[in-house]
Design brief:
alpha+beta, elongated
Length: 133
């Protein structure tokens, strides 16, 4: 029972501001990293979430305080159009946006375009997903 304390916080999160000059908020999937049985009250700073972004799978874990401070939890249907938008955006753009100075000077910037997440991710209910050990 203690392990499910913050399980409702696992899911899709949307940033509270627009990103990369697109006028659209960024979206991510955050899944709680379970660490055995919990006893008593848990400090949200110690609860970590594995994060997957539409363009990058290996993002350093985030804590619940950072998630709540910068993002808001949304349903999978609400996240779907944003996830699709960002996946398409990163096919031709970097995380700096359309006005990237590196891209303007060198013709290419690979920041953030190293991985495009599998779209099957959105077909799962976040509450049933568990991260790899």
């Amino acid at each position: 029972m203690g392990c499910a304390l913050y399980a409702k916080e696992s899911g899709f999160w949307v940033s509270q501001r627009n990103s990369a000059g697109t006028g659209k908020p960024y979206v991510l999937l955050a899944l709680e990293i379970l660490h055995g049985a919990r006893r008593g009250r848990i400090n949200p700073n110690f609860i970590k979430y594995r994060v997957q972004r539409p363009n990058i799978a290996n993002v350093p874990p985030m804590n619940l305080i950072d998630l709540r401070g910068n993002y808001r939890l949304v349903s999978a249907p609400e996240a779907q159009p944003l996830w699709d938008f960002w996946r398409q955006f990163f096919v031709t753009n970097c995380t700096h946006g359309k006005n990237c100075s590196t891209r303007r000077t060198t013709g290419h910037c690979s920041t953030g375009d190293s991985y495009i997440a599998d779209p099957v991710t959105l077909h799962h209910t976040p509450h049933t997903l568990t991260p790899d050990p």
